[in-house]
Amino acid sequence: MPTDLSCQVLTAGFSFHRKPYSMVQLDGVKNYLMRLQTDGRCRARIDGSMSMVDAGDLLLFDPDEPYELRIDNEYNPMGERLVESGDYHIFFNGSWVDEWWKRHKRPTRIKVELSESLLTLFRQLILEQRRLSNPYPEISSYYMRILCLEVDRLLSEHPTNTKTNHVAYEIKNYIEENASSLFKLNDVATHLGISVSRGVHIFKETFGKSIMQYTLDVRLNMARERIIFSPMTLEQVAESSGFNNYTYFHRVFRSRFGMAPKEFRLIHREQM
Questions:
Q1: pTM for this structure?
Q2: Integer CA distances (angstroms), 255 to 114, 128, 175, 260, 261, in order
Q3: Is 234 within the bounds of a domain?
Q4: In this structure, are residues 63 and 92 in contact, taking their beta carbons and an 8 Å threshold?
Q5: Helix, strand, coil shares of the chain as percentages rounded to 5?
Q6: Among 38, 48, 78, 272, which is 20 to 30 Å from 249 by CA?
Q7: CA 230, 232, 236: angle at the middle one, nearest 5?
Q8: pLDDT digits over 227-243, tens only?
């Protein structure tokens, strides 16, 4: 694990282009660059050739890697010519980053879900960089390290870059982000633009359990933590963890942990 905590964010921003744009630095950008395509399309130099970059493509460049970006006219389904490209971009460096980069073989492009948790990290870094007076510059460093480690997690969770694999992890991310609210299989499918049957099949094939089984696992884990560490009543724990029926929650909790929620709270708080 890296021992040097040096990690500096040089600049962080969001760009949205409606006119053609290009940037060419074939001798590299001199610092590390992380770029997340959020809207529209563009073209970038990836592995030596210009490739189409779509929303959800996360690009990683080391300081010496050739960088070329082109935003040109594209055509929508109606045949209309337009230019539209939005992205978050961060230039950063530091000895911590050097060690982090060397830990894994890093592809230039990673396909990710534009989840609220990932987007929030980019937004927070931008806000920190905009502060005119900031007595705590290390906050940016911590956020950047969290973002880098999140990239590591994305790499570990996407061992193969197939479309099917990507959809399965998009479903998984949706569950983890929405487990505290009530949702149906149709909500997951609609969010991803797929059929319910395809989503159910892909998820079960990838993870060996159903979407609702995994949802139950996440909700029970949330409830377990809140029972131990929060001051909420057991009924509030159940509701805030995605259970709208306390009787059902009591039954599945006892089945999973071998004791009722009240007994579980008493035992674990005595151990604290």
A1: 0.72
A2: 35, 46, 22, 9, 11
A3: yes
A4: no
A5: 45, 25, 30
A6: 272
A7: 130
A8: 999 999 999 999 999 99
User: Taking the chain, what is the end-to-end CA distance rounded to the nearest angstrom?
Assistant: 30
- For residue 3, being part of any structural domain is answered with no
Q: Extract the tokens encoding 199.
A: 């989503």
CA distance 127 to 213: 38
Separation between Cα atoms, residue 137 and residue 179, nearest integer Å: 34
Closest-CA residue to 41 (of 81, 89, 86): 86
Same domain, 213 and 174: yes
**Residue 197, helix vs strand vs coil:** helix
Say whether both 13 and 146 belong to one domain.
yes
Q: What are the tens digits of pLDDT across the range 46-72?
A: 988 999 999 999 999 999 999 999 998
Residue 129 and residue 169 in one domain:
no
Name the β-bridge partners of 12.
90
We report the CATH number of the domain holding residue 29 as 2.60.120.280
Cα distances (angstroms) measured from residue 219 to each of 10, 73, 167, 175, 231: 39, 46, 21, 10, 18
Token pair of 145 as six digits: 């390290």
Contact by Cβ (8 Å): 88, 36: yes
Q: 125 near 148, Cβ under 8 Å?
A: no
